[in-house]
Structures are given as C-alpha cells and as structure tokens.
Amino acid sequence: MNYNELFNMCGLNDEWQAQNKERIEKFLHKIYIRSDKDIEDSVAWAKSQFDFTLQGTRQIMAVIMKESIDYSLADEECEIIINYTRPAMASLSQGFHVWEKRINEELGYKKYYARGTSIVYLMIALGTIFNKANWCIELAEDMGQTAGKGHCSEYQIWEGGLSKGMFPPPTVEVSCGLFCDQAPEVEAMMAEEFSYDIVFTDLPEDHPWDTWPNMDLEAIKYLSANTELVYDHLREKYGFTMSEEDKSQGVMEANKFTNRHFGIAELIATTDGLPVSRADLFLSFITSAIGTYYTEELLEAMKQLEKDVRKRKREGIFVVPPGSPRVYGTFVAVSDMRFYHQCEEAGLHLTHVWFEPVPPEVFNTPPASDIPREQGYEMIFRFQGLGDLCGSSLKQAKYAVEHYKLDGLMIFETMFCRPLCLPAAMIKDYVQKECDNIPVMRLELDAYDSRNYTPEQYRTRLESFAEVLRMRRVMNE
Ligand code: SF4
C-alpha cells in the first residue's frame, strides 16, 4: 500500500516512515486500512477535515499519529498497559507519560505503556483521518450499547474498537469519573467483557451552587485522596511507582501545553476575522487538554501553529473575514470537523470553544488548600465547563460575551454526554438576562458521532443565525 502521501501530510516524513515501516503497516492493518483504495479515501477525507498546508497542523498531527500507533501496537511492544482514560486532563495524566519515559529508560526496554492519551488520539485519527469512528460506534451498538441507553459515543468507539482489535485491551484501566458517570459505568462493563483490571478515580463535581470561584475543599481532598489510592493499587500490583517528581514534572508540562494553547486562543479571540479554521485550532486545544508522551514535539508544534496564525493575520488571509459576527460556541468536535467548516462558510467567527474563555478569577483566586497536589485538583475544578454543578459555565459565558464583545452565543447539547447537556438551558436564560438579550442559538450535535450530521440540516440554521447577528450589529451601530 502506498501510504507515503498520507503520512507526509500528517507530518511524518520519508525517513520516519522508512524507520517505522513495519509498525505503520501493522497499525494500518489493525485499523482496517488494507488497500490502496482505503488510503486514497483517507487522504481525501483528511483533506476535507484539516488544512494540511499549515505546518503547525502537520506537526500536531504527527504527535497524534505517533500516539495512535504506539497505542494500537502497545500489546505487542510492551508488557504492561496502563491506560488513564477519558475524561482525564493533562494535569492529572501527564505524570504517567513522564513516568513511562523514565522507567523504560531505566529498565532499558519498553516494559510499560502508561498514558492518559491513548483512546482520544486514536479516536481523532480514526475519525478525522481514516473515517472509521462511526463504524466503531455501530459495532458497539451491535454489542448492545445502543443510542439512548445513556452511554456516550466516545465510549461506543472504545468498545467497538476493542471488539475488532483496533485498540489493545489494557492490563489495567484507570477510569476517570472527572465529570461524568457514564465513562466509569461503561468501563466497568467492558472490564468484565474484555477481562482487564480496572480501578476508579471518583472525582465529585458537585460543589455548592453559585460559590465559584471558591471550590469545595472537602471535594478537593476527596479527589486527591482517592487518586492516591489508585496510585497505591498501581504500585502494589504493577510496580507503577510514580514519584512526586514525576507528578510535579507532569503538572509543569501540562501547564506549558495549556499556556501555549491559551496564547493561541487569545490571539484568535482578539483578532477581527478568523485566520485559521477551528478544525486546525482543535488540534491545539485537544492536545493541550490531554497532554502527550511527545512533550517537546508538541510544544514545538503548537508554537508553529501560533506562527501560522500570525503569518496569515499579517498577510490578511482569513477563513472568516474581518467584520464578521463573533460568537462563543460551546462545542468541541473530536471525530469529524465538518461542522466547524460549515460555521465558517456561514460567516461565523467562533472566537472561543468550550473551556477556552478563562475569566481572571480562575487564576487570581487564592487556593483553599495549602498542599500543592490539592491546589492542582482545585484548579481543575475552577476551570469552567466541566460537569458544572456549581454554575461556573454560566459565569464563563457571561465573561466571554462581555469581555470579548461578542455578538452571539451558540450552545451545543452534545446529545449523549450528560455533563455537557446539563447547563445548556440555564446558560441561555442566564446570559440573555445578563447580557442585553444577546441572541443565543441551541444546537444538538455530538462530538464523536456524526452519523446524523447532514450539512443541509445545519446550513440554513447557521446562515439565519449569522444574518440575525449581522442585522443586530447594524441596528446597534
Ligand atoms: S459522557 Fe461526555 S464527558 Fe463523559 S466520557 Fe462521554 S463524552 Fe466524555
């Protein structure tokens, strides 16, 4: 199979391909890319998703592809697979990557695969490069995880992929209940189905209503204590002995990813016009949120993407022209970027996506705990937009609208993800009341499952919304 063009597009050059020939071929076989036609289809699909003329896009995609290959071959290449699954954040999981690197170097061979990135990166590659995400979802439905059972498409992909051997079953899964109950529920079922060990971190997102930015110290301590219990289990059973230095370095690296992405996000939010598609910006968003084993490469890649944005801005190249309506859209697509392109075709400048508007209180509020580890957990809770049982995402939306002088708000109900649906109706009422009845649109969409996505269905609504925002701007002038 001639996959040279595809991997070059994804930032992996001829030399890397030659060195990794056997691994690439095994990987492609595992994910059911088995003919030249499959490769041609993937190239065409990937080009409809991202702008591969951007050097930054290619470099970030290289990290994602390397992570995907590592993960898919982990059962052949490593003895013990420790997965920290979604929705873990980089500040929790980056220590795993630090530890994996250090311990394998000390041992002199790849004994452990220990990452918190695996499932998501492979989902991104399967969805946006190989167009296989929806197939995995269908496989999971055939196995009984039907839509409407309250389990999300993210975990349908995981189950479908496991059933076909695309993903290796882990030795042990650290299941993260950071802000949803669905992931641990499905994980408990799959641990039995695919015979792997599982251990749960239970992270309560139920802070008292309207107390943000002050978070509940009891909840923070609980999270911290039960995460330490998980580490105890990993140490006793699998020799996973992450040191305090590993954890601190992980947090430091996670902070660097976050800072770099927020630098790009601020640039986008304060530019009149959108120089680079939200699809390409998603790559920076997601990698900063979940981290990677390839730390330096990712930091370089993000820096390059920022340069790409600045260059386009300087040269006056925009995917949404200056003067267009500016909108905060609370949606993050993961497996299919077409919706972003459609927003851009309708002339909507998405200044932010979910999680990106960061009110000053997030960093300015003094920590309630004096223990550094707990301060890290506290910060995770203080960022808005998680499960939001404390009203934080309402404040975040108000801040975005007022601070960035936005014309509208698009709230997405990601259909089978309870936590992301939760605040949708409340945000609309709150922001309209607080922000001069600003136009708000609510849309149902799913971050992973695009089977029900029909461009026509959304085009009319997006164009009408953009028109309303333009008219309102004119009237206000
Ligand atoms: S329910 Fe939502 S937050 Fe939880 S794993 Fe699924 S998509 Fe992620």
Write the layout of secondary structure elements.
Blueprint: H1 4-9, H2 14-19, H3 21-30, H4 36-49, H5 55-72, H6 74-77, E1 80-84, H7 90-107, E2 112-115, H8 118-129, H9 133-142, H10 153-163, E3 172-177, H11 182-193, E4 197-202, H12 217-238, H13 244-269, H14 278-290, H15 295-315, E5 326-329, H16 338-345, E6 349-353, H17 361-364, H18 372-382, H19 392-403, E7 408-414, H20 418-421, H21 424-434, E8 440-445, H22 455-476
Parallel strand pairs: 1-2, 1-3, 3-4, 5-6, 5-7, 7-8
The chain binds iron/sulfur cluster.
Would you give an account of this structure?
This is 2-hydroxyacyl-CoA dehydratase family protein. It comes from Acetobacterium wieringae. With 477 residues, this protein is an alpha/beta fold. It has a domain at 58-243: Rossmann fold, CATH 3.40.50.11890. It is 58% helix and 9% strand. It contains 22 helices and eight strands. The protein has helices spanning 4-9, 14-19, 21-30, 36-49, 55-72, 74-77, 90-107, 118-129, 133-142, 153-163, 182-193, 217-238, 244-269, 278-290, 295-315, 338-345, 361-364, 372-382, 392-403, 418-421, 424-434, 455-476, and strands at residues 80-84, 112-115, 172-177, 197-202, 326-329, 349-353, 408-414, 440-445. The strands form two sheets. A four-stranded parallel sheet has the order 2-1-3-4, with helices on both faces. The longest helix has 26 residues, at 244-269. The protein is globular and about 65 Å long. The mean pLDDT is 92. Iron/sulfur cluster binds at residues 86-87, 152, 154-155, 180, 182-183, 417-420.
